[in-house]
């Protein structure tokens, strides 16, 4: 519960209370247009991952720019999207448990909703629930293309599960989920290219095998912001699930900078707005934004526009800064923007995005699926 | 927003949906009693840190067991506590910014509320707001006793700020905030003892100096779960701010186990309830609880009661397990309890505690200050 709103529409940015989650609307809109353009020049469709923003307002913006729908990881996220007007949701994940499956299948009566599976017991349970609700649920087989997390192995195991789905009267075999998560954050361009090349080979072999058994893969879906160009050019993938491109965190930006063509890609548009709450020494300042205001699992945040100021340590409610330039003025009460190390779990800490343009608050968007972990 | 509640009162634990934040009520109540007993045998008062639980129901339980009130880090937390019936709140932190200071001072009309300061400009602003609202606000000087975060240095700088507070008609000088955060997680007992010994020497010297200038330190407050025994025995501290003792995370438990007398201290009472959502190989299982269901900033969670099962990697919505015992049955849909590496930021991800006893849900407590970062 926030007892106090961070901002009101029309406020100057300086008056916005901290910590708050800011969106630079110009940069955000340019990112949406850049991805739309990249996809328009390829043979794939964009299905951005809504786990990054958890916000139906943003999902509808992405669809207005050409996206076919969104992905979600959780039934609760899918509910928030559908209730917020998004008509097309792929749950790019396994949904296990009686209650969750009932919610998923019931939601499929209200919108186009599909799900992934990697286990015969789960397929059986999905089928029973779909029949009980009178739904024919599209189900994709998730295959392991290299990250060794969920998914059956490509080839024969994928075929066996696809056959089971196709033979289930409540289900419809819809294709393959083939996301290579660990390839997203490989530092080198060539390594990412190689990883996706191996994934594509596994998919092609599975598609061919399934085809020989009369099972067509209508959808082959995967990719993220770190690798989307490779999947788009693969000739195999039909959909891209990139999500972080709208915001860009520190980690993705490092990779793109190394690629040598940062200008062709995306800009940081998401910031944690923070206040200098203590100024104990000339070299040290303390912010009011720590673990509960940003996620450090992929590294510490950067201070936007101040390369001489380093965020060196997060505590639960504090962020410690080192000022490398002795002439840097950073008075008590100053506010600054932090670029999160990892956007997705940072967004999950907030109830609202505060969108600004020309240093004035222009939009306050509810993060409807904040905390929707079930 | 959670579109679906995790539990209902009376449900068997097995029926509780995941991820959910569980409290083992027996262990939780024993922890409260153990700390109450430890404090009863000393000359200090307990003022538990509510940043750990963010829940007025728990704060009132702690007060019923003898605590004088609670600490908070944020005005929003203090508001949640006061609105939830807690009559006595120390904001053990600096509050900077016009809006926040107004809220703090207004809250002091509704309950006993005190705050810390480490900067003359902040003291000036607090005084002006207190006068505007017709409040006399108790203010403590935060001194740096070793963690080099906020706080003025002990001795003369502390004296100067205390004098300014005492001379401010809207404020009342109430004592010293002297929390040694970095001592909490030192692995060795002797190192923690040494760190608090150094802190106590700095406090004593400051108390003596302030006393010579007619400034009595009514409150000297600090300590955490990792060091509370040293502060309690110091003869200098008047209040303990330990918070994590009610739940106990992996990191604190490691220290206490190394101390060699774990039985005399606290039990794990907080768990993340998770489901096995994928079972791709004999050695690998995947849970539905990752970064958005638990905080890994202080290390990965442990699997309760299954030493042969290791949580090896967190992704945003997934937790990867390695099963070291090939005979471990962990079927798709199984539920298990994770002991969070760090309780405080994990609690901040949830809206409700699900309290259970004898494997049955007995309490659902709102985490009223979840997300209250301002």
Choose one word for the global shape of chain A: globular
Low-confidence stretches of chain A: none
Give the largest interface pair and sizes: A-B, 74 and 74 residues
How much of the polypeptide of chain A forms β-strand, as a percent range? 15-25%
Q: Multimeric state of these chains?
A: homodimer
Number of helices of chain A: 10
Overview of this protein structure:
The structure is a homodimer of 374-residue chains. By secondary structure, chain A is of the alpha/beta class. Chain A is 30% helix and 23% strand. In chain A, the strands form 2 sheets. In chain A, strands 1, 10, 11, 12, 13, 14, 15, 16 and 17 form a 9-stranded mixed beta sheet that branches. In chain A, strand 10 and strand 11 form a beta hairpin. In chain A, helix 3 packs parallel to helix 4 and helix 4 packs across helix 5. The two termini of chain A are 19 Å apart. The model of chain A has no long low-confidence stretch (mean pLDDT 95). The interface between A and B is large, with 74 and 74 residues.
């Amino acid at each position: 519960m926030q007892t106090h709103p961070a901002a009101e529409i029309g406020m100057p940015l300086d008056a916005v209370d901290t910590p708050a989650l800011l969106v630079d609307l110009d940069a955000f809109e340019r990112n949406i247009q850049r991805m739309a353009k990249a996809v328009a020049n390829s043979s794939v469709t964009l299905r951005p991952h809504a786990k990054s923003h958890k916000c139906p307002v943003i999902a509808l913006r992405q669809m207005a720019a050409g996206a076919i729908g969104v992905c979600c990881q959780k039934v609760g996220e899918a509910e928030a999207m559908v209730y917020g007007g998004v008509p097309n949701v792929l749950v790019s994940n396994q949904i296990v448990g009686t209650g969750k499956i009932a919610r998923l299948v019931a939601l499929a009566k209200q919108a186009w909703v599909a799900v992934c599976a990697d286990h015969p017991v789960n397929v059986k349970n999905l089928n029973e629930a779909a029949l009980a609700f009178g739904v024919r649920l599209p189900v994709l087989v998730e295959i392991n293309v290299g990250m060794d997390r969920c998914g059956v192995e490509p080839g024969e195991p994928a075929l066996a599960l696809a056959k089971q789905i196709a033979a289930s009267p409540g289900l419809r075999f819809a294709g393959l989920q083939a996301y290579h998560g660990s390839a997203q954050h490989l530092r080198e361009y060539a390594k990412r290219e190689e990883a996706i090349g191996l994934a594509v080979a596994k998919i092609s072999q599975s598609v061919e095998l399934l085809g020989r058994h009369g099972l067509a893969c209508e959808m082959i879906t995967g990719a993220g912001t770190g690798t989307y160009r490779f999947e788009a050019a693969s000739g195999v993938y039909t959909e891209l699930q990139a999500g972080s491109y709208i915001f860009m965190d520190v980690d993705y930006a490092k990779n793109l900078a190394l690629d040598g063509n940062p200008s062709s890609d995306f800009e940081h548009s998401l910031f944690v707005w923070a206040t200098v709450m203590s100024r104990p020494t000339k070299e040290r300042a303390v912010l009011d934004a720590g673990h509960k205001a940003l996620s450090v699992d992929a590294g510490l945040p950067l201070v936007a526009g101040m390369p001489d100021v380093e965020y060196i340590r997060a505590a639960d409610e504090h962020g410690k800064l080192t000022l490398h330039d002795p002439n840097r003025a950073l008075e008590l009460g100053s506010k600054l923007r932090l670029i999160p190390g990892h956007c997705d779990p940072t967004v999950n800490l907030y109830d609202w995005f505060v969108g600004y343009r020309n240093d004035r608050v222009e939009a306050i968007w509810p993060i409807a699926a904040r905390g929707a972990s079930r």
